[in-house]
Specification:
Layout lengths: L1 E2 L11 H13 L9 H21 L7 E4 L2 H12 L5 E5 L4 H12 L3 E5 L11 H5 L4 E7 L11 H11 L2 E5 L11 H4 L3 E5 L11 E5 L37 H17 L1 H19 L5 E4 L12 E4 L4 H12 L1 E2 L13 H14 L5 E3 L2 E5 L13 E2 L14 H17 L1
Helix pairs in contact: 1-8, 2-8, 3-4, 9-11, 10-11
């Protein structure tokens, strides 16, 4: 299997992550809910994850990191906790639904929205920011990198605009946390929302948000906190203010291990290698007849995503062919049904481009991690191509055995149900 869908979630985790989760499952109690060793150990694990995230993002201290189940929850907390009816928000057409749907809900409640557009290559039209500014503008909510095109947002420019006009800056770092090395303090970010299961290599069900000191975010949930149990109102101090209920301690132990793994390997070193591999794949795949590549993968600052389509083909059909015939996992977008123009022949060319793009594998504990990038009309990055069953330069042959085996598996399942 060649896994190119880490934009959705990273599949091949470092061994340290697996070990941390298993160890926590055996030893961790409920943090803040007792004074015995199991609960104290859980508290230490959670603090370790906070400290790792705070170091990664250059936060003022670990208390500025609150954990959530994912970036979606973090963005809902930030947006719903800071924007009120009558406020105006500037965002972009590049945002994920985890940004758009909370904003649309607030628009229904009386907030107003403006959307910065893009050019033909998917680059933001930054000059539109000034035109959208109003007296009631409260915040800019923006992605660090587009999950569709991979184009990276110039957060320094956005930060300058926000500071100059006294606005809040809320950043969706789903595609950049662990991939880009940046400082929330230097960029003046008020709230940074992140997920743990993509470039940070943590388990699913982990994420969080950084909140700048002095900024109060209204919690989305209130309830159990482990402290001030007789108070009628939920504690207001970070991070407890945004963490009602029992945390995913086992997942956070794995997240801490994933963050430490990335930092130990060197974020900038990994970023350079991943971008080199992405450009190498792009140079191969762009020569395929009828290929349509979105964004600007050859740009110096670009997330490790290659988002593409085959002209005249439904992206879902292409994704199915890549998996059924060649064992390549990709994310398909919302394509239109096509005319079936030589889809298999061109899928062979995509598969060969994926293999030839990588001539070295970084092997760790029998895992072969090759390239970060995505195939599919609506990509979710960053993506990891795992090619342990292939050698560099190997030609990809169409294999019918995979489809036959899957058909046999489905038949066996049907017999078992009967």
């Amino acid at each position: 299997m060649i896994y190119m869908d880490n934009a959705a979630t990273s599949l091949q985790k470092p061994l340290q992550v697996e070990q941390a989760v298993l160890e926590a499952l055996r030893t961790a109690g409920n943090p803040g809910r007792g004074a015995h060793e199991a609960t104290l150990h859980a508290s230490r694990l959670v603090y370790g994850a906070r400290a790792a995230a705070a170091e990664l993002f250059d936060a003022e201290d670990a208390s500025r990191i609150a954990f959530t189940a994912n970036a979606t929850e973090a963005l809902n907390i930030a947006i719903s906790g800071l924007i009120r009816p009558g406020d105006h928000v500037i965002t972009t057409v590049c945002e994920h639904n985890s940004v758009l749907r909370p904003l649309y809900r607030l628009r229904d409640q009386g907030a107003t929205l403006s959307f910065v557009g893009v050019d033909a290559r998917g680059n933001l039209k930054y000059e539109e920011l000034e035109a959208f500014l109003r007296p009631e503008t409260r915040a800019v909510v923006i992605t660090g990198a587009s999950n569709v095109t991979g184009n990276v947002t110039d957060l320094s420019y956005i930060s300058s605009f926000v500071k100059r006009n006294g606005l809040l800056l809320i950043v969706d770092a789903s595609q950049t946390a662990g991939e880009e090395l940046f400082s929330v303090q230097k960029l003046g970010i008020d709230v940074l929302c992140f997920t743990g299961h993509k470039a940070l290599l943590g388990p699913q069900g982990t994420g969080g948000l950084y909140v700048k000191p002095g900024l109060s975010v209204e919690p989305l949930l209130v309830g159990g906190s482990g402290i001030h149990s007789y108070d009628e109102h939920h504690p207001k101090e970070m991070p407890t203010a945004l963490e009602a209920g029992t945390l995913n301690v086992h997942g956070l132990a794995g997240l801490a291990a994933g963050i430490r793994y990335r930092m130990d390997q060197g974020i900038e070193k990994l970023q350079k290698r991943e971008r080199d591999l992405t450009r190498r794949f792009y140079e191969q795949v762009k020569e395929i007849p009828g290929i349509i590549v979105y964004g600007a993968p050859a740009a110096k600052c670009h997330a490790p995503i290659v988002s593409l389509n085959l002209a005249g083909e439904d992206s879902a059909r292409v994704a199915d062919a890549l998996w059924e015939e060649y064992g390549i996992c990709v994310r398909a977008g919302t394509g239109r049904p096509g005319e079936g123009i030589q889809v298999r022949r061109r899928c062979v060319m995509i598969a060969e481009a994926a293999i030839h793009a990588v001539h070295e594998f970084t092997v760790h504990k029998r895992r072969a991690v090759a390239v970060w990038g995505t195939v599919g009309e609506q990509a979710r990055a960053p993506i990891c191509l795992v090619g342990g069953n292939f050698e560099a330069g190997t030609r990809v042959r169409r294999g019918k055995s995979r489809s036959r085996q899957q058909a046999q598996d489905r038949h066996q399942c049907q017999k078992q149900r009967q």
